[in-house]
C-alpha cells in the first residue's frame, strides 16, 4: 500500500514542526505539505490532493470549522482530524457533524497522536481493499466494542485461531518496511513461533499478506512475509 499522504494546517511554526516530526515517526505515512492559514490550505489541498488533513481550529484568516465545511462543499475526497485547543462543545458538535475522523485536544502526547493515525491507517486500508465490508469491519471503523460473548467473527476462523492475535500479527507486519520470517515476526510480537507460523499460513492463504521465498548462499529457502 502506498504511504498515506498527510497535510498539516497549523499557524504556529513550532507546533507545525512538532506535528511534522510526529508524522515522520509513523510508518505508512508521508508529509505531503504544510499550510499556515486557511487560504494557503485550500490552495495546497487543490494542488496536492492529500489523503488526510491535520487541521487546527484557530487560524489567522478563518477557523477550522469553516475550512472543513469548505472542503466538504467542494467534495474533496480526503479525511480530516482536528488538532486544536478548542474545547467548546457546540463547536465540537458542529465539527463532528461536518465530518471528521478524530478530534485531538491540545496539548497532546505522541501516544494519542499515534493512536489516531494508526486507527486511521487501518480504516484507510479497509476502504481500499475492494471487498464488501463485514459488520466486524464497520464496528472497528466506528470504534464499537463488541460484547465478549459476541464471537460470530471468530467462529469464521479456523479452530485454534482468534481475531485478536491475528490483528496483532497484521498490525505488526503492516509497520514493517521489509518482508520478515516467521521467527522474526514471533520475536517482534512476543508470540510463540509455532503460533505465528499458523497465523501467517492462514493469512497468506486468505491473501491478506504475501509470501516471498528468499534463497541464501547455503541451506534451504526461507519464507518471508510482508503486508
TrEMBL record:
UniProt cross-references to SMART domains, sorted A to Z: REC
Residues carrying 4-aspartylphosphate: 56
Location, primary (coarse class): cytoplasm
Keywords: Activator, Cytoplasm, DNA-binding, Phosphoprotein, Transcription, Transcription regulation, Two-component regulatory system
InterPro entries, per the entry: 2C-system_Tx_regulators, CheY-like_superfamily, Sig_transdc_resp-reg_cit/mal, Sig_transdc_resp-reg_receiver, WH_DNA-bd_sf
UniProt superkingdom: Bacteria
Protein's cellular compartments: Cytoplasm
Residues in Response regulatory domain copies: 5-121
CDD domains recorded: REC_citrate_TCS (cd19925)
The protein's name in its UniProt record: Response regulator
